[in-house]
Amino acid sequence: MVYISTDFVFDGKKGNYTEADSPNPANVYGKTKYLGEKMAEKADDYVIVRISMPYSSQYSSGKYIGWVIDKLENKKIVTAFADQIRTPTHAENLAECMCMLAETKYNGILNVCGGTALSMYDAGLEIASVFEFDKNLIKPMKGSEAGFAAFRPLNTSLSTAKAKKMGFPIKSFHDGIIEVKKYRERKGEA
Predict the structure, then answer these.
(1) What CA–CA distance (Å, rounded) separates 39 from 23?
(2) Using CA atoms, how far apart are residues 22 and 186, in angstroms rounded to an integer?
(3) Which architecture, in CATH terms, is 2-186?
(4) pLDDT by residue (tens digit) across 10-63?
(5) What single-letter DSSP state applies at residue 66?
(6) Residue 130 and residue 138: Cα distance in Å, rounded?
(7) What is the pLDDT of residue 132?
(8) What is the pTM for the complete model shown?
(9) Rounded distance, CA 160 to CA 87, Å?
(10) Which of 83-87, 96-100, 185-189 has the lowest mean pLDDT?
(11) Is 130 helix (H, G, I), strand (E, B) or coil?
C-alpha cells in the first residue's frame, strides 16, 4: 500500500519536519490527509510518502510554478508569500524516487519532496533567476493578506535527510526549475 500524503499534516509552527514528528493538521485538507495516513497504517505493508507543493516540467499554468513563469514571461507583477515556507516537489523526481522505493522493503513514512525549503517569494526569485526574467517583478506579501477561506500553515518544510541517507536522488528546487526550463526549450516554449 502506497499513500501519497502532504506537508499539511503539520501545523507549520516549526518546519523541517521529519518522519518522526507528530502530525497536527491545522486545516480540513491536512486533517483528511492525516486520516488517510491512519488508514494506510492499517495495511500489513505500507509506505506513506509525504510531499509538498508538487510541480512538473510539463507544468500547468494553474499551479504556482507555471503561474509564476507565465506572469514573469509576460512581464507582469507576481506577488508571492514571503512568510510561507515549503519544500516544492519536482514530480518527475518524485516518480524516479517512487520507482526506487518500490524496489525496497521499506515500510513506514518517508518524506520524498524537494531538497530545498524556501518561501514562495524566494521560489519566485529562483524561477526568475533560472529563466532570466526580471526579479523586480516579484513582490513579497504575507499569506494572511491573501484572504484565503482556509488557514495555511506558515512553515511546513519537510526534512529529506532520511530519504537522502537511503540513497534517493532528491532534487534541489534550483535543479528542478532547470529541468522545467530544459523541457520548455525542448518543446520550443522558451
Answers:
(1) 14
(2) 43
(3) 3-Layer(aba) Sandwich (3.40)
(4) 999 999 999 999 999 999 999 999 999 999 999 999 999 999 999 998 876 678
(5) H
(6) 14
(7) 97
(8) 0.93
(9) 9
(10) 185-189
(11) helix
Here the cell at position 153 is 500553515
CA atoms within a 13 Å half-sphere pointing along the CA-CB vector of 68 = 28
- Tell me the C-alpha distance between 111 and 160, whole Å: 6
- Check whether 145 has a pLDDT greater than 90: no
Is residue 189 scored above 90 in pLDDT? Answer: no
Residue positions counted in the chain: 190
Cell triple for residue 28? 480540513
Domain ranges for the chain = 2-186
How far apart are the C-alpha atoms of 5 and 113, rounded to whole Å?
11
Q: Give the cell for residue 141.
A: 506579501
Q: What phi and psi values does residue 180 have, to the nearest 5 degrees?
A: -60, -45
Q: Which three cell numbers stand for residue 125?
A: 526569485
Half-sphere exposure of 103 (CA within 13 A, CB side): 8
Judge contact between 87 and 131, C-beta under 8 A. no
